[in-house]
């Protein structure tokens, strides 16, 4: 989960190169409202936070007003802006010192590694018609010798800086890579997540699109103006004449080879025409691939349109009402597992498509099974499924289809929230509580929040669906920011499965030397005898989770992270699950040479060994990120399970999500406490979600189903509520817990991670950042609680020491402003080699 940190370098904390263009007078993301007193209920909950955060996030909605114009340069003077008064902009020149040069065309440009901006550049006359917002440009930046790539976010008339601007050197794109609403989304995200806008663009536009993967340049020929002279054409030799007349008659450009085919000639006459200046040439890019679909759609499920249950038609009625009202409404579909939420999504999308609009369906990556895909592909003429195993060319191809408006439904993981559909009518997040919707590298956005912002700006509904809604979404329904739609029963009135808790503190319940209790053992045997299928959940991969010497107590740990290594039996490796550091598992203690090192703790590999020993006749498969490395392996195991070639599936949370197999009669949870005692305020919520979701995999057919949950904390509220399928009880109790400390959804949290190679230098940097935060808080009069710096649970990662600071406030705007002010001029000497990362609304505290 932490791999993002290394592969995506975060904001460089060193000095930021200042552009030679005049520093920004008024960044379009001016936080002008940040210092304003909170609205009465702003920050009371996440939805309120979302409403106020995005509505007032300047740049996002401000830009809406004047950006709908398609001419490259909006006419009229830029609207004067009062934002320069805030303390945040003391360094800006006072307005009366500015001399406005009204006739200068100006482009506002943002960058990947220059956090503040946008920066203004002059657009030379010859580029005026070519440059539009959403295109990339080459511009000079700072003392760099070579031009830097930037993104144009606005074009306007009038240089307000009072200084001479540098010129845009080159326009890099033929057409904008995103439309105005998406440019506004970028500006908002950059502001809210405090991430350089250039980085947000990189997240928004796939690299395959930026690199034009799967395309090639082609030269097109059309008649040059000189060919209008009939006498010239008449004087040409026959072949040249025929070719030229054909091209004129065609009325559209052709490639040389097309023209050769049509005019039945060789390259000679065409080259002659070129030389005579009778042809003009135009280079265009075209896709080399046509329809690259390596995915097969069929998964053995029948295509059927169900007659809706009462719950489903009620839900659909309320969603279509929202669609028809053309309002930016948020709806939460809380439907128990197996209540038929997917059918409701499909019907809602049919309604959207009927009016010529399109929809985005976001799902956790692991749910992008052939089953999910098939359900959408069978019901719509044109579906684009985005997934991580696409080649760059495929991704680019799909992106172009989407942008051309050829796609009705886009199904994909979190980044699909940026799909450039021209007529978007609805955004759906299925399993909206899922942690994979938060990106753990820069920009650290949450797809739910971005979807909300996009839906707001387009005035379209956002539909969130889950059997175990996040408390953020749930609380939004309680405070009137979202509409709750409930589907409390399963399709066909199937009962919810019976859940039995096994108290592992009782010695007789445990099995000697194994992980499977007596009761679970009996239940598995019984189920196998009835030809039913079994799912066993253990949320830890590997064989043994600690390697410890019983003689001296030494624990074999990662030298870079100081976390215990996990023993993997295949290949006898000891692996760090945080950074992938791998060694051969030592046969004796590396400290004292004691020959009898012990493998403690339980992972899925060890469980697999035990299962095969206990149930030798069962056909077993293991599903975790170790066995699922190869593309397609996930689908392969699932279709074997569906077709009955497997009896028992064991694995990590991968098996807990969205699977719909009617013959699963038993679900066993090996250790429900695994996530319960994490130092994270969401530990209870995650446990509840995981147990409820995996329990929901059974009882989906006509043969019923039951669940056995092994736990050391059977009385814990999260486990009790999950065992009764009682979301309401859980949500109420958990909201009361969160209220005590104003944790989300009641308040907002941000986290700053400071990391460096030298421990005390890192800590000192964290402390000076804290001081800055304190003084910003004071200057802004912000009510923000500051915690830390302290080492997080993962105190060292990949050789870097880590400290974190937590900020907490009822008002997300005050929280954001405090960080923005404190970090704006915070510079860390390069020799210290310390970086920091801002994580707004963090989803993990490790
Ligand atoms: N109206 C209906 N009549 C009969 N069967 C239906 C109906 N609607 C859905 N189903 C079937 O019920 C099963 C469960 O539906 P679905 O997978 O959409 O549930 P879900 O609410 O998404 O559950 P989960 O949250 O567990 O993923 C599917 O096999 C689906 O085909
Ligand atoms: Zn030892
Ligand atoms: Zn490590």
Set down the secondary structure blueprint.
Layout: H1 4-7, H2 46-56, H3 60-66, E1 101-110, E2 119-122, E3 136-139, E4 148-159, E5 170-171, H4 180-193, H5 197-204, H6 207-210, E6 215-223, H7 230-234, H8 238-250, E7 254-255, H9 256-263, H10 267-275, E8 279-287, H11 310-324, E9 330-335, H12 341-354, E10 358-362, H13 370-377, E11 383-385, H14 392-403, E12 409-412, E13 424-430, H15 447-458, E14 462-466, H16 471-478, E15 483-487, E16 498-503, H17 518-529, E17 533-537, E18 546-548, E19 566-568, E20 573-575, E21 582-584, E22 598-600, H18 604-614, E23 620-623, H19 633-642, E24 648-651, E25 664-669, H20 683-695, E26 706-711, H21 717-723, H22 727-741, E27 748-756, H23 759-780, E28 785-790, E29 796-797, E30 800-809, H24 812-824, E31 834-840
Parallel strand pairs: 9-14, 9-15, 10-12, 10-13, 11-12, 13-14, 16-26, 17-24, 17-25, 23-24, 25-26
Antiparallel strand pairs: 1-2, 1-4, 3-4, 3-5, 6-7, 6-8, 18-22, 19-20, 20-21, 27-30, 27-31, 28-30, 29-30
The structure holds adenosine-5'-triphosphate (ATP) and zinc ion (2 copies).
Describe this structure in words.
It is built from 24 helices and 31 strands. With 846 residues, it is an alpha/beta fold. It has a seven-stranded parallel β-sheet with strand order 11-12-10-13-14-9-15, sandwiched between helices. The longest helix has 22 residues, at 759-780. The radius of gyration is 30 Å and the shape is globular. It starts with a helix and ends in a 6-residue tail after the last strand. The site of adenosine-5'-triphosphate has 19 residues, from helix 12. It comes from Stieleria neptunia. This is Replication restart protein PriA. Residues 29-39, 299-309 have a biased composition (Basic and acidic residues).
């Amino acid at each position: 989960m932490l791999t993002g940190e290394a592969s995506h370098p975060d904001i460089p904390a060193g000095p930021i190169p200042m552009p030679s263009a005049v520093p920004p007078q008024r960044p379009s993301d001016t936080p002008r409202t940040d210092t304003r007193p909170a609205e009465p209920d702003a920050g009371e909950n996440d939805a309120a936070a979302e409403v106020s955060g995005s509505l007032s996030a300047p740049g996002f909605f401000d830009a809406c007003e004047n950006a709908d114009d398609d001419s490259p340069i909006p006419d009229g003077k830029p609207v004067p802006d009062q934002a320069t008064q805030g303390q945040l902009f003391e360094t800006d020149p006072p307005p009366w010192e500015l001399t406005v040069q009204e006739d200068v065309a100006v482009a506002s440009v943002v960058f990947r590694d220059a956090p503040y901006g946008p920066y203004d550049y002059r657009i030379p006359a010859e580029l005026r018609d070519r440059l539009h917002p959403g295109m990339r440009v080459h511009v000079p930046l700072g003392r760099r010798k070579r031009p830097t790539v930037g993104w144009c976010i606005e074009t306007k008339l009038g240089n307000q800086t009072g200084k001479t601007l540098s010129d845009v050197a080159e326009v890099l794109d033929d057409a904008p890579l995103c439309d105005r609403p998406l440019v506004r989304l970028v500006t908002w995200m950059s502001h809210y997540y405090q991430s350089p806008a250039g980085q947000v663009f990189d997240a928004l536009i796939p690299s395959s699109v930026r690199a034009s993967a799967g395309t090639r340049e082609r030269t097109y020929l059309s008649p040059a103006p000189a060919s209008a002279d009939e006498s010239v054409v008449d004087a040409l030799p026959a072949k040249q004449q025929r070719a030229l007349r054909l091209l004129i008659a065609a009325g559209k450009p052709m490639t040389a080879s097309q023209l050769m085919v049509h005019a039945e000639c060789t390259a000679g006459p065409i080259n002659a025409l070129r030389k005579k200046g009778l042809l003009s040439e135009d280079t265009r890019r075209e896709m080399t691939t046509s329809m690259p679909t390596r995915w097969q759609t069929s998964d053995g499920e029948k295509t059927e349109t169900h007659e809706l249950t009462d719950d489903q038609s009620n839900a659909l009625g309320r969603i279509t009402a929202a669609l028809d009202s053309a309002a930016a409404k948020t709806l939460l579909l809380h439907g128990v597992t197996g209540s038929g939420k997917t059918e409701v999504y499909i019907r809602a999308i049919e309604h959207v498509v009927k009016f010529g609009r399109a929809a985005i369906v976001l799902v956790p990556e692991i749910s992008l099974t052939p089953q999910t895909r098939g359900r959408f592909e069978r019901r719509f003429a044109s579906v684009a499924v985005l997934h991580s195993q696409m080649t760059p060319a495929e991704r680019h191809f799909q992106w172009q289809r989407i942008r051309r408006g050829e796609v009705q439904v886009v199904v994909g993981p979190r980044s699909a929230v940026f799909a450039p559909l021209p007529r978007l009518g609805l955004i759906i997040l299925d399993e909206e509580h899922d942690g994979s919707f938060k990106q753990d590298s820069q920009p650290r956005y949450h797809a739910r929040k971005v979807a909300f912002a996009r839906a707001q700006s387009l005035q379209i509904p956002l539909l969130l669906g889950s059997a175990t809604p996040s408390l953020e979404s749930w609380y939004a329904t309680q405070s009137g920011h979202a509409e709750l739609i409930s589907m409390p029963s399963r399709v066909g009135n199937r009962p919810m499965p019976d859940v039995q808790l096994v108290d592992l503190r009782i010695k007789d319940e445990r099995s000697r030397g194994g992980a499977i209790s007596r009761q679970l053992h009996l239940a598995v045997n019984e189920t196998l005898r009835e030809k039913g299928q079994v799912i066993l959940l253990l949320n830890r991969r590997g064989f043994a989770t600690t390697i410890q010497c019983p003689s001296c107590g030494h624990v074999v740990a990662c030298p870079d992270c100081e976390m215990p290594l996990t023993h993997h039996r295949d290949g006898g490796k000891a692996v760090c699950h945080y950074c992938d550091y791998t060694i051969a598992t030592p046969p004796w203690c590396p400290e004292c040479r004691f020959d009898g090192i012990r493998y403690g703790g339980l992972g899925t590999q060890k469980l697999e060994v035990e299962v095969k020993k206990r149930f030798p006749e069962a056909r077993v498969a293991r599903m975790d990120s170790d066995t699922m490395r190869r593309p397609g392996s996930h689908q392969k195991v699932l279709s074997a399970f569906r077709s009955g070639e497997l009896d028992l599936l064991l694995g990590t949370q991968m098996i807990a999500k969205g699977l719909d197999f009617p013959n699963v009669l038993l679900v066993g949870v090996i250790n429900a406490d695994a996530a319960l005692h994490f130092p994270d305020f969401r530990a209870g919520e995650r446990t509840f979600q995981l147990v409820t979701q995996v329990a929901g995999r059974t009882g989906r057919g006509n043969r019923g189903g039951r669940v056995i949950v092994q736990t050391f904390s059977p009385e814990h509220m999260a486990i009790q509520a999950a065992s009764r399928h009682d979301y309401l009880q859980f949500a109420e109790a958990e909201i009361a817990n969160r209220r005590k400390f104003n944790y989300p959804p009641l308040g907002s949290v941000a986290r700053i991670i400071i990391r460096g190679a030298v421990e005390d230098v890192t800590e000192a940097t964290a402390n000076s950042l804290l001081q800055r935060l304190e003084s910003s808080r004071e200057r802004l009069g912000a009510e923000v609680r500051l915690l830390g710096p302290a080492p997080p649970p993962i105190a060292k990662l990949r050789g870097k020491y880590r400290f974190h600071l937590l900020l907490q406030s009822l008002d997300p705007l005050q929280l954001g402003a405090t960080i923005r002010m404190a970090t704006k001029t915070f510079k860390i000497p390069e020799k210290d080699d310390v970086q920091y990362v801002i994580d707004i609304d963090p989803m993990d505290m490790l």
